[in-house]
Write a structure and sequence with these properties.
The protein starts with a helix and ends in a 13-residue tail after the last helix. It is mainly alpha-helical and 269 residues long. It is 79% helix and 0% strand.
């Protein structure tokens, strides 16, 4: 039984390395190729800052899955929290601000661009990328992980372990994009709605960290209470830092389009 569990754990680790190290590296290569092609074109430009942002996001995700962070996360709750912050908050910030959707549309044919926008405009996709849905998947997933036995379950079941790490990245990206992503999104909710969701999600994230600190969640992890408290503190302050960046990005995006679309932006008073 122990051998089977060890084999399953090794298989899960190998799959995660493929999905969150090899695949991101390939995605980064594709991104850099198309960014370079745009920068070489006399009729088009591409921001070097966006390239740096996307590259940093990819590197943070890869770093979270490689030693020493991955080994630290396996044996220490504080390491898990650093991994969580990189995969679910800071990495997605870099990816979203890199505007991969705009880069894709600028390199795609008109027919492909129309198909991509039609896909984003489909009702199920619009529901998925709505800020409320994204917040529930992202912040709600954290409550499920840390306040229920799912955390311990994920540490002993390879499939759940893989799902957990993928969920960190995908839900973090979706939430960041739904709030302040520069990429186009058909029928995106207004800024008042997105700002309200952002502040509620920020409050919910902080409350979760306080619950973990005050009541020793997640339970039955065999980690000392001091370790759990330190992880909760890192979650609280690290989350605040990431959310502050997202708030700044939201108002920067609002200010950028203020003159063109004055009625769609909250007054900056």
């Amino acid at each position: 039984m122990d051998h089977a569990m060890h084999h399953g754990s090794s298989s899960a680790t190998a799959l995660l390395l493929l999905l969150l190290v090899v695949l991101p590296a390939l995605i980064l290569c594709v991104y850099l190729f198309y960014a370079y092609r745009l920068r070489r074109s006399p009729r088009s430009r591409w921001s070097g800052w966006r390239t740096a942002s996307f590259s940093a996001g990819i590197l943070m995700i890869m770093a979270a899955m490689l030693p020493p962070i991955a080994d630290w996360a396996h044996r220490d709750m504080r390491g898990h929290m650093v991994q969580h912050l990189l995969l679910g908050m800071f990495g997605p910030l870099g990816l979203v601000f890199g505007a991969p959707g705009i880069l894709l549309l600028r390199n795609a044919s008109r027919e492909m661009s129309r198909r991509l926008m039609a896909f984003l405009n489909a009702r199920p996709v619009r529901v998925l990328i709505h800020p409320v849905t994204a917040a529930v998947l992202d912040i709600g997933g954290m409550y499920l992980l840390y306040l229920t036995p799912f955390y311990l379950f994920s540490m002993t079941h390879p499939a759940a372990f893989v799902f957990l790490h993928l969920h960190f990245v995908l839900s973090g990206y979706l939430f960041t994009w739904s709030i302040a992503g520069p990429d186009p999104a058909p029928r995106r909710p207004g800024r008042a709605m997105r700002l309200a969701v952002l502040f509620l999600a920020t409050a919910a994230h902080g409350i979760l960290a306080k619950i973990m600190y005050g009541y020793g969640y997640p339970r039955a992890t065999m980690s000392p209470l001091s370790e759990i408290e330190a992880a909760a503190e890192w979650m609280y302050y690290g989350g605040d830092a990431a959310e502050l960046v997202l708030i700044f990005a939201f108002f920067s995006l609002c200010y950028k389009h203020r003159s063109a679309l004055p009625d769609s932006c909250l007054p900056l008073r």
